[in-house]
């Protein structure tokens, strides 16, 4: 007989996966088959629903909510399709336009969150690596090989992406400035003994990833809805059409950027509760007082409303055209480098004892 806990866990995880897949498919489906305003209206409705769901989870805390919300996304999609099947209400169109403006203006916020989270994660990796080095030469040798691979892979990634990422004189100039600034800051960090090769190699991979996205070749896709056949006698063509839509219409650069942004935000949210720990506190905190930290409260809010973050980040990425995404990538690179430079230069000597992992 199946364990009830195992059965419930399978249902809960399936419901969460189904919810994520529905959001991933429904938003670009609406944008590709109806209009930009329909897409914005569906995004607004999904965001409102996710805020309500997050609030109920915060107050109630039951996993049953994840199962109960599964039919909500198809229902909202049908509502959106029904609204735009005839002349939509002007108030709904106005709300969709305002939501699109808000998403566009939120671009700098998303860049700040991604840059800070990336820097926080690579610094945490540097901290953990420094602790492993103290355990023996085997760890030190292994980390040295890992960082060497990261440096070489980053250099190869940048060189391979150069023909498309530096397609204009301005882009090639920005790439040269970014690499020069990174090398310059790395040397300063080593000279001041406030960084290590693990942190530096992590930022090298971050820069290479953004440069690669700047040169991502976006191929033109054919219209997936151009050849429908009657449903009952031709079920296979419909399945093939749906499969072609999922493969060709979901924008691959957007999905990669979405996966990275959500992953880095999730990792950073796990690091936030440790920020601000006093030097005499252990890693696990003292008397479980870390739950009272403001950063712990922020982490709880981020995890509670992660579906809202998912919808807004995904909607914002879908709204950007290729040229806009390129400029946001360059802004992300330089913003992260500026924050890193401030952290390296402003850090006082008194803080080295608390952050001994930054000293080689």
TrEMBL record:
InterPro entries for the chain: Ice2 (IPR013635)
Annotated GO biological process: endoplasmic reticulum inheritance; septin ring assembly
Keyword tags: Membrane, Transmembrane, Transmembrane helix
Pfam entry (one): ICE2
Sequence intervals crossing the membrane: 6-27, 39-60, 98-121, 141-159, 171-192, 303-320, 326-346
Cellular-component GO terms for this entry: cortical endoplasmic reticulum; endoplasmic reticulum membrane; perinuclear endoplasmic reticulum
Keyword DNA damage carried by entry: no
Protein name as it appears in the record: ICE2-domain-containing protein
Source organism of this protein record: Galerina marginata (strain CBS 339.88)
Lineage of the organism: Eukaryota, Fungi, Dikarya, Basidiomycota, Agaricomycotina
């Amino acid at each position: 007989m199946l364990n009830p806990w195992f059965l419930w866990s399978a249902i809960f995880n399936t419901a969460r996966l189904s919810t994520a897949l529905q959001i991933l498919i429904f938003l670009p489906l609406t944008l590709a088959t109806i209009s930009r305003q329909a897409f914005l209206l569906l995004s607004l409705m999904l965001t409102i629903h996710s805020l309500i769901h997050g609030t109920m989870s915060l107050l109630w805390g039951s996993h049953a909510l994840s199962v109960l919300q599964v039919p909500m996304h198809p229902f909202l999609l049908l509502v959106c399709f029904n609204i735009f099947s005839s002349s939509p209400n002007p108030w709904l169109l106005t709300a969709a336009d305002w939501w699109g403006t808000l998403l566009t203006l939120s671009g700098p916020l998303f860049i700040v969150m991604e840059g800070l989270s990336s820097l926080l994660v690579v610094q945490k990796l540097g901290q953990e690596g420094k602790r492993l080095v103290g355990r023996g030469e085997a760890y030190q040798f292994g980390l040295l090989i890992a960082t060497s691979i990261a440096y070489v892979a980053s250099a190869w990634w940048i060189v391979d992406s150069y023909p498309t990422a530096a397609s204009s004189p301005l882009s090639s100039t920005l790439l040269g400035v970014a690499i020069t600034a990174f090398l310059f800051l790395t040397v300063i960090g080593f000279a001041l003994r406030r960084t290590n090769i693990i942190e530096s190699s992590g930022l090298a991979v971050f820069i290479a990833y953004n440069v690669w996205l700047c040169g991502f070749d976006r191929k033109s896709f054919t219209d997936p809805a151009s050849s429908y056949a009657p449903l009952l006698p031709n079920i296979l063509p419909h399945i093939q059409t749906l499969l072609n839509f999922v493969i060709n219409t979901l924008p691959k650069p957007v999905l990669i950027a979405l996966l990275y942004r959500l992953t880095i935000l999730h990792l950073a949210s796990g690091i936030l509760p440790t920020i601000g720990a006093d030097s005499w506190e252990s890693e696990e905190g003292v008397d479980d007082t870390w739950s009272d930290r403001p950063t712990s409260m922020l982490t709880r809010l981020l995890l509670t409303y992660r579906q809202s973050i998912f919808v807004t980040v995904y909607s914002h990425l879908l709204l950007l055209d290729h040229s806009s995404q390129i400029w946001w990538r360059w802004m992300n690179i330089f913003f992260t480098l500026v924050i890193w430079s401030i952290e390296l230069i402003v850090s006082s000597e008194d803080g080295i004892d608390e952050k001994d992992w930054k000293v080689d």
